[in-house]
Specification:
With about 325 residues, the chain is α/β, with parallel strands linked by helices. The chain contains 15 helices and 10 strands. It folds into 2 domains: about 210 residues, 3-Layer(aba) Sandwich (D-Maltodextrin-Binding Protein, domain 2); about 90 residues, Periplasmic binding protein-like II (D-Maltodextrin-Binding Protein, domain 2). Pfam families: NMT1 (PF09084).
Amino acid sequence: MTMAPGRREVLGGLAAAFVGGGTARAAGAPLTLLTNWCAQAEHGGFYQAQASGLYAKAGLNVNLRMGGPQVNAMQLLLAGQCDLALLQPEEAIRAGMRGLPAVAVATTFQKGLAGIMTHPDIHDPGQLRGHPIFISAEGRSSFWPWLKARYGFTDDQAHPYTFNLQPFMFNPQAAMQAFVSSETYAARKQNVPFNFYLLSDLGYPTYGNVLLASRSALQTRKDEIAAFLAASSEGWLQYIYGNGQDGDRAILAANAHMTSDQLAFSRATLKRIAALGTNGASILSMTDAHWMDIHKTLLQSGLITDDPRWRDGYTLSFNGALTARVPS
């Protein structure tokens, strides 16, 4: 799950063109969610809601559209090619600051899924000073400055992330960005020993897979979006804490490269790390306090300027529509 090259520049160029409400979608069109990768467990609650009939029960016609590394989700959202898109909170904050008509309305995960994978001899991330670390473009514009400040890393340690384990496997000094529910599975399957440090556990505040809506969709399809989020929260409850087989079957049908074994691993991992929140938490909900922590970290890292418009990048108005809670 990575940012398309040049997304920050694209956002800047789009600000003037989409300073209004964005491009509206045709009346009667399906409500379309654009994900940030090929179908996988990290999207499972949405596929569960689709496959188990939760969306249909809510009177919704929903289209789940897969993203990927070459898909610029923000550009497609602003162009009216989808109603909602899975992005990261940094992008919502920057959208607010730039006056782009895109607003975070919910978050899939209460914490980020990214972390640092190291070889077994590394028992604390601070031991990585001077070691090569493979980091994606998205990571460089989000958590990398925070890691540098916290652990004393330098930019010459950052090497391009290549979406495979080979550079890590064959360099005993290297570490790499990884997702707790993805690359760790690949390492286990290849019998590669490792340690993993979830950034959220290290103190990095973020959300994971935030749902952004276009302002045009908020103006014309607000009730549908509220119903979609309510059904999606129930879908995630089923997928992680119930029988998620409907969602798994839908994911496997959509993504020929996915396996049942990986889905089972990822679902168990998301449950283990309490990705949907702690016991009793409202699934998909957000808070002002968490957004303020994210903004503060971006500001201290020098990734944004102090612009009060950042708050325009999210709304808590849909929290009341969310019906599912993490089981106690």
